[in-house]
Design a protein that fits this description.
This is glycine dehydrogenase (aminomethyl-transferring). The protein is an alpha/beta fold and 529 residues long. It has 15 helices and 12 strands. The strands form 3 sheets. The chain has a 7-stranded mixed beta sheet, sandwiched between helices. A 3-stranded antiparallel beta sheet has the order 10-12-11, with helices on one face. Strands 8-9 form a two-stranded antiparallel ribbon. Helix 4 runs antiparallel to helix 11 and helix 9 runs parallel beside helix 10.
């Protein structure tokens, strides 16, 4: 049944759009927007300033000799420019975001409203502690629930993002080894771990030893034991991501943890987000006492919270004393914030300070609001929905797209490879660009590196069945188009975006970062009618 077209057409259609050109270059409400330098005026300013009296500059040879060349616009012109630019961005508020990224996910508006409350949003890190007792109590309650959900003994809230959290966890491990008179130099990193893991270990001076994945995408316990044996007595720990970047749960995690602990090393369990975990598994469980374990980013807002970032790290009892400054402790009158080394008590051995202040207060509020609004049963359902949605996409596409590790249950994200595009003349990048024409941001491309032409999709717990059905149907249409040999649909895509495909290699190697005023010869007069 078609829509009622009486009185006006519901759509101009591709033919009408191609045939109808406009004087402005705009297409209805899709505005063509030049650079701000091109619409502004360099010969005037947006404000009137009196000529300054004679003065002696303190800048010496550094004083500007030329015009600043900032464009002048009226307030409405400036506002319109940035609003029009914003409409060219793809956002979670405009459509499904299949990208396997922690930050590109929906955040309930309740959390946003709570984070903007004056008592949290307007405080300053240099305020006296007596004036921010409510904020300290909130951080204390958040810490309590993060430790309860993970079974850990302490939590560091100060890290600002996932990679910062990794650094925090590994610095605590390094401090613990040195406190025990050891200085091992090797960190094991599975190939299926997060890409920042080896960089974090290398930054701290460790030698990174890669652990290969099995054919099913998981870490082989025997391979871990072999690497431990090769570096006998010199292994500081392992940085293992679970679920790993292939979207697969590491089924041998207990045995791996036992092997690491037997080598007097520490088990760092990485994870981009906690929603696939609550009430399904306890991160402390694989680490039998004395539990030399750490885990980063357990904060419950969906997929990391949307930013600004926060990467809390929960620590086992053996690593808890090394939590960085500033940290919270339970005092006689409630939670206390320890900000300097002078406030450290006996038994507390912070490895130092990672950041000037405690953390991102807005993220703490979002996290606790999320936990309180969902409750234990709601967090469990969010975990189940994240896994269900990823598997719904997997089942909807597995007959047309290729699964590198076969048709098996995935966790919160599903991984495809590009073998289904073989002999079609369509590359992985072509396929991704064609998704833009269909109104979707591409999924994560070419990562994880253990899979050739990887396509990693993370639908999250927030998407409805209807939105997933449309997404799956769209990808099925693209796949069938590629297999039919309709390469033109892909080779020049995106065709309908505000700008066409860039030469991304050239843009990365020779970026143009400064606008240059065109010369007089470059400005061509308009052709006469």
């Amino acid at each position: 049944m078609s829509m009622n077209t009486q009185g006006r057409p519901t759509s101009a259609g591709d033919a009408g759009e191609a045939a109808h050109t406009t004087f402005t270059g705009n297409k209805g409400l899709a505005m063509e927007e030049p650079l701000i330098f091109e619409i502004g005026h360099q010969n005037i300013t947006g404000v009137d300033l009196d000529e300054p009296e004679d003065f002696q500059t303190e800048l010496g040879d550094h004083a500007r000799q030329e015009r600043i060349d900032l464009p002048a616009l009226t307030e409405p012109e400036a506002m319109r420019h940035y609003v029009r630019l914003s409409t060219k961005n793809y956002a979670i508020d405009s459509g499904l975001y299949p990208l396997g990224s922690c930050t590109m996910k929906h955040n309930p508006r309740l959390n946003e409203k709570a984070a903007r409350m004056a008592g949290f949003a307007d405080i300053h890190p240099l305020q006296p502690l007596s004036t921010v007792a409510g904020a300290v109590d909130l951080m204390s309650e958040l810490s309590h629930w993060l430790m309860t959900m993970t079974g850990m003994s302490a939590v560091a809230l100060s890290p600002k993002a996932g990679a910062h959290g990794e650094l925090c966890g590994m610095m605590a491990i390094k401090a613990a080894h040195r406190a025990n008179g050891r200085d091992p130099k090797v960190v094991l990193v599975p190939e299926s771990a997060h890409g920042t893991n080896p960089a974090t270990a290398a930054l701290l001076g460790y030698k990174v030893v890669a652990v290969k994945a099995r054919e099913d995408g998981t870490v082989d316990t025997e391979e871990v034991k072999a690497k431990i044996a090769e570096n006998q007595g010199n292994v500081a720990g392992i940085m293992l991501t679970n679920p790993n970047t292939c979207g697969i749960f590491e089924r041998d995690i207990i045995e791996i943890a036992e092997a690491i602990h037997a080598a007097d090393a520490y088990f760092y369990c990485d994870g981009a987000n906690f929603p696939p975990s609550p009430e399904k598994r306890n991160p402390a469980a694989p680490a039998a006492p004395p539990r030399p374990t750490t885990r980063h980013k357990p904060s419950p807002p969906p997929q990391g919270g949307g930013g600004p970032g926060s990467g809390p790290v929960v620590l086992s009892d053996r690593l808890a004393p090394y939590a960085p400054l500033p940290f919270l402790r339970k005092g006689k009158d409630g939670a206390e914030l320890v900000e300097t080394a002078e406030g450290v008590a006996e038994g507390e051995k912070p490895f130092g300070r990672m950041t000037a202040f405690h953390g991102q207060m807005g993220m703490f509020v979002r996290a606790l609001a999320y936990m309180k609004s969902h409750g234990s049963d709601g967090l469990k359902q969010a975990s189940e929905d994240a896994v269900l949605n990823a598997n719904y996409v997997r089942v909807g596409l597995e007959d047309l797209m290729s699964l590198p590790f076969g048709s098996r249950w995935c966790m919160h994200e599903v991984l495809f490879d590009d073998s289904f595009l073989k002999d079609t003349g369509v590359s992985t990048l072509d396929f991704a660009k064609a998704m833009i024409d269909e109104g979707y941001h591409p999924m994560t491309m070419y990562f994880p590196l253990v899979v050739h032409g990887a396509m990693l999709i993370e639908p999250t717990e927030s998407e409805s069945r209807a939105s997933l059905d449309l997404f799956v149907a769209t990808l099925r249409d693209l796949v069938m188009s590629a297999k039919k040999g309709e390469t033109e649909r892909f080779s020049g895509a995106p065709y309908l975006a505000p700008r066409r495909r860039l030469d991304e290699t050239q843009a990365a190697r020779k970026p143009v970062l400064k606008w240059e005023r065109p010369s007089a010869t470059e400005v061509q007069p308009a052709a006469a009618e």
